[in-house]
């Protein structure tokens, strides 16, 4: 069976300091998968390594049983908001239309149909009225919605999203999770770096608990428990005292 993503034994180091150690996991199709772990656990590095943005020291990565290059059109990425240059002089509609380039081809002009698709995606995230607005003049949550619209316009089969819920209000968070569930219903696979342990069970079918290495990976109901959380977060789990519901579910 061909999986959307297969990661085998990847090890990554920055300036010879190991950040990810022999990470292996295989992602099933049509699931929402949360990547969970403390600050500095290597979550962003993992996504960037998978996408070829950070070099790996060893290991192999396959997309739909093939290489990233061959499957690039099927792979979508929503980066962490803080890493995007929002001063880039472009408006919301152009950002979303860029999501279509895999279909249009670089150097070619988008067709009317691509613009219509981009507008429909802006509509879907409630941002159509901001289509002509410079992205630098949007709020953080609105920028996040525009990036999600771009991912939608791309119509990929495998998505990576780095902390899409950070800094957004409750309405935007709800809009994003609705959208992720819609993608899932269409058979898409979505990996999401996520911080809020309270919502993990509600949002994700599978979880990857990461702290430099894979602590646990599998169906949320099977691996998201206090024991594994303690292994992942170590002494930083004091906050669980404030969340007795989670602690009780051991
Ligand atoms: N470009 C870089 N050069 C050197 N070290 C880096 C670089 N990027 C990240 N690191 C280090 O690698 C480790 C993992 O960082 P990473 O950003 O992947 O963690 P994370 O789990 O995504 O953290 P957070 O939850 O805080 O976003 C950290 O110790 C970080 O300081």
From TrEMBL:
Q: Which UniProt keywords apply?
A: ATP-binding, Nucleotide-binding, Transport
**What Gene3D superfamilies does the record tag this protein with?**
P-loop containing nucleotide triphosphate hydrolases
- Where does the ABC transporter domain lie? 5-237
UniProt KW Transport keyword: yes
Which GO molecular function terms does the record list? ATP binding
Going by the entry's taxonomy, the superkingdom of the source organism is recorded as Bacteria
- Listed transmembrane segments: none
What SUPFAM superfamilies does this protein's entry cite? P-loop containing nucleoside triphosphate hydrolases
The Swiss-Prot or TrEMBL record describes its family as follows:
Belongs to the ABC transporter superfamily.
Q: What is this protein called?
A: Manganese/zinc/iron transport system ATP-binding protein
Species this chain originates from? Aeribacillus alveayuensis
């Amino acid at each position: 069976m061909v999986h959307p993503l297969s990661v085998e034994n990847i090890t990554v180091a920055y300036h010879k300091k190991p950040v990810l150690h022999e990470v292996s996991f295989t992602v099933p199709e049509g699931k929402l998968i949360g990547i969970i772990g403390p600050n500095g656990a290597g979550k962003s590095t993992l996504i960037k390594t998978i996408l070829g943005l950070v070099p790996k020291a060893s290991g192999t990565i396959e997309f739909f049983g093939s290489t990233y290059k061959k499957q690039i059109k099927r792979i979508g990425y929503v980066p962490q908001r803080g890493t995007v240059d929002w001063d880039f002089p472009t408006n919301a509609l152009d950002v979303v239309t860029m999501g279509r380039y895999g279909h249009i081809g670089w150097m070619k002009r988008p067709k009317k149909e691509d613009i219509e698709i981009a507008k429909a995606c802006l509509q879907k995230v409630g941002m159509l009225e901001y289509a002509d607005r410079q992205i630098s003049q949007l709020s953080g949550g609105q920028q996040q919605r525009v990036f999600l619209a771009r991912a939608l316009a791309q119509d990929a089969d495998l998505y990576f999203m780095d902390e899409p819920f950070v800094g957004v209000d409750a309405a935007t968070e709800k809009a994003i999770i609705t959208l992720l569930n819609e993608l899932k219903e269409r058979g898409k696979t979505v990996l999401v770096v996520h911080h809020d342990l309270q919502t993990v069970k509600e949002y994700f079918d599978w979880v990857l608990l990461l702290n430099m290495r894979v602590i646990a990976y599998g169906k949320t109901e099977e691996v998201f428990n206090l024991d594994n959380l303690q292994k992942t977060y170590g002494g930083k789990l004091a906050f669980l005292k404030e969340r007795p519901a989670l602690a009780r579910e051991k």
